[in-house]
């Protein structure tokens, strides 16, 4: 493809994208295709000769859009939001054109340096303590990971390396194989599944600790569990505090947990994947009180801050535990400036990395902090609107306190009727929700996901849910 | 940012990108900035109010391009190539607009299904055995990972899970902690640093085995090492064969290694990160003879097949070992169609994933197999051209056989003079190379990286290197 064709193609795609996003609420939110739908729509092999770009354009609706779940439709209320904005799309174009691999500073100085500075901008926007920021002049700083799962794993591996080092200093006769089976980490039993998975991947025990009745992990429970484990010869090394659980957006008691971790010298990682974006609004920072006691902090601008996936922001006070633990240093990756700027390849699981800081730069500048705050506040207000509508119908109950852009609710009564309600809602295909379950109580989650969502959309979603409830309850009366 | 501004911005960026890439050879390949250059060029904080997109456009040259290493310049010969093409850039625009997170089938059926079919297309293009492909109807199939490092780690974790299962079946009284310290994996001592790192991350021993004089890992050496380890009570569980090492693009003796692995029932992973793209040309498939004996295979279309990063293609014969080992299954990720299509979240380290199959689809259709083959053959021909030029100068020697788009060469003589030559070349800033070292012999690597490279560019690079050699040798005669 030559430059001329590229220009035509990219401009046609620009028009298509604007048309797609501006009219996204008119599309069926979840497609009605069955598994295997796509294979018969395309040839069995790649073509031998080049096709024209217009042929590809023509296939987008037929092959792709017919099977897309439209995450950015105001009718989409499943999971948590994933970000999508015009500035981020354009930034990714530039990233694709530069297409450098920023594994070391010299491999593209701009790629590393813009990331260092953007993570400082972002950290200041959240009110993170200076001890997390590169501008503090120490080793601390931020890095863009692909996902929160990777951040949790990276922090776990850092904590593991630090603990191995410290335990060996006390017990020089112990080898890794004597220590690793004794290591134990902790998280709220409501923590994201990726925390459990990080334990599996890292080959260490990760205990789920029961939260209080508001689903918050509390300091006392954590302390008791840790002390019991120590008595049994285990070595506590890692705690994950969740700010905004996936099931119900509960916030662990960070300050209490922080005190326990500092007292016991245990690495504290804070996973605020979804809710972290809200801390750009000062009125929500009470939910991260105690953050200065953490060793690492992570949230996903690619969820709720309009920076397209993948952009998971992580800050580390002592990156050295990651950098040193997994440092393999072949000659072809060495350079003369080593040590005077971060070589991000040591801060992450993969070696390669895209120029992702451009997305942050574009979004922060083209929205400005105030508009990003407006975006967060609007989503939270829409969640409260839904809460109000749902609460006013006495057949329903709100299952957990609404703090952010998520409403957990259910029909009063047993789980079966709620399972039926959700089947009914998703079966009609007008809106899309996923359920969750805590302590065997099944409930529905309505997340505000789209940056196009308006009050009228919430009314439509509520009407749809109300109608489905009418049907379900009518059937049950028969 | 509204749709109107987006259209203007995206179209201006399209023009900028075409201009940047079409004239890239005129830019200084590595910038002359020093660490810390960027921070003074931007404000200390993010702006409170939105800026106009033209302000961002104006800053791109000043802030970003002044510190970019131009990987797509024909003057760039470092590392290995990373891909960049117009069709992939446009595909990523669409991916950014759809911005679905394809962790399960239902989360966006098109995202999963296009990936399944594209990996089948690609597998056929390489001549992979049907036993790796989804179209064979079994559990086998391909997946897009972020990087080869992740593929190596995923395969290692699968091998570990499989071995733990099998060892426990024989020794039900053994626990993980009895088995894991005995596990041992193997790779060529010339394997990529990420293989060693996968061992560190996965918490298992990974032994580097010495290759033969052509830097190829051979079956006999591997067999001897394994048998010695078994005698010492270790449990061999994983072998990585490299097709195209980073230092010198050597190819392990895959068929011999495959025989050993099948005889000993050890998971064989093939890392063809760079060279794998060449297998779309039938004349190079002799280098992957024995591939049917492998359990997993990986190469990076994002290196040499014009699909922008990240797109690392991996095939697994038995994904179940990955899927089952790290399967955490919360209610909010369950869906009714589980089991009838892959849920790719189980095949990878992160949970989230972008719609990356679009890049493959666009590139394969808009180039066609023949043009992609031409691209590979042209790069290899250019490497041979450089080899010819360099060989004709009796002051130089070619250090390893040239098979792909990489030429390893050095001045006859000691390492110091070659280190000086490289410092001289990179110091002048006209072209960019990185060195490597094998058995204490230091040499320079010239990789053909850019899709814009022409014969005239190779002559320019050679002239530059020849002039630098003149200078270095003149100084030494003084």
Automatic annotation (TrEMBL), chains A, B:
InterPro entries: Aromatic_deC (IPR010977), PyrdxlP-dep_de-COase (IPR002129), PyrdxlP-dep_Trfase (IPR015424), PyrdxlP-dep_Trfase_major (IPR015421), PyrdxlP-dep_Trfase_small (IPR015422), Pyridoxal-P_BS (IPR021115). It comes from the Eukaryota. GO terms for cellular component: cytoplasm. Its EC number is 4.1.1.28. The keyword Cell inner membrane does not apply. Its cofactor is pyridoxal 5'-phosphate. GO terms for molecular function: aromatic-L-amino-acid decarboxylase activity; pyridoxal phosphate binding. Signal peptide: none annotated. The modification N6-(pyridoxal phosphate)lysine is found at residue 303. Coiled coil: none annotated. Keywords: Catecholamine biosynthesis, Decarboxylase, Lyase, Pyridoxal phosphate. GO terms for biological process: amino acid metabolic process; carboxylic acid metabolic process; catecholamine biosynthetic process; serotonin biosynthetic process. Homodimer. Belongs to the group II decarboxylase family. This is Aromatic-L-amino-acid decarboxylase.
């Amino acid at each position: 493809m030559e430059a001329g064709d590229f220009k035509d193609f990219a401009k046609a795609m620009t028009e298509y994208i604007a048309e797609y996003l501006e009219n996204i609420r008119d599309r069926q939110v979840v497609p009605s295709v069955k598994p295997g739908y796509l294979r018969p729509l395309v040839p069995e092999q790649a073509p031998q000769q080049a096709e024209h770009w217009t042929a590809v354009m023509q296939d987008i609706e037929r092959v792709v859009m017919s099977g897309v779940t439209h995450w950015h439709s105001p009718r989409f209320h499943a999971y948590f939001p994933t970000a999508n904005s015009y500035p981020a799309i354009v930034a990714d174009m530039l990233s694709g054109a530069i297409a450098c691999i920023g594994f070391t500073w010299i491999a593209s100085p701009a790629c590393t340096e813009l990331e260092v500075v953007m993570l400082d901008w972002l950290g200041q926007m959240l009110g993170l303590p200076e001890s997390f920021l590169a501008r503090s002049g120490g080793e601390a700083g931020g890095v863009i990971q692909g996902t929160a799962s990777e951040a949790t794993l990276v922090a776990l591996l850092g904590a593991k390396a630090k603990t191995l080092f410290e335990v060996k200093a006390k017990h020089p006769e112990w080898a890794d194989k004597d220590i690793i089976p004794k290591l134990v980490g902790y998280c709220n039993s409501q923590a994201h599944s990726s925390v459990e998975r990080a334990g599996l991947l890292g080959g260490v025990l990760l205990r789920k600790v029961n939260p209080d009745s508001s689903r918050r992990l509390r300091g006392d429970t954590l302390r008791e569990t840790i002390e019991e484990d120590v008595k049994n010869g285990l070595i506590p090394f890692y705690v994950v505090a969740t700010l905004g659980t996936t099931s119900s957006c509960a916030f662990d008691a960070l300050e209490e947990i922080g005190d326990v971790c500092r007292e016991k010298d245990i690495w504290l990682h804070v996973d605020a994947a979804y809710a972290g974006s809200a801390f750009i609004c000062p009125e929500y920072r009470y939910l991260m009180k105690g953050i200065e006691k953490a060793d690492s902090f992570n949230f996903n601008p690619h969820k709720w801050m309009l920076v397209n996936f993948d952009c998971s922001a992580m800050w580390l006070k002592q990156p050295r535990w990651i950098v040193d633990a997994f440092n393999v240093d072949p000659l072809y990756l060495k350079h003369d400036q080593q040590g005077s700027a971060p070589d991000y390849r040591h801060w992450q699981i993969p070696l390669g990395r895209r120029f992702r800081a451009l997305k942050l730069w574009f979004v922060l500048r083209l929205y400005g902090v105030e508009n990003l705050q407006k975006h967060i506040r609007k989503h939270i207000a829409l969640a409260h609107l839904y809460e109000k509508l749902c609460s006013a119908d006495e057949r329903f109950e709100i299952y957990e306190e609404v703090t952010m852009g998520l409403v957990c609710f259910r029909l009063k009564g047993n789980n079966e009727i709620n399972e039926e309600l959700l089947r009914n809602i998703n079966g009609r295909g007008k809106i899309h929700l996923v359920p969750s379950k805590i302590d065997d109580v099944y409930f529905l989650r309505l997340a505000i996901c789209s940056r196009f969502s308006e009050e009228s959309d919430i009314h439509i979603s509520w009407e749809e849910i109300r109608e489905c409830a009418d049907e379900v309850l009518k059937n049950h009366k028969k």
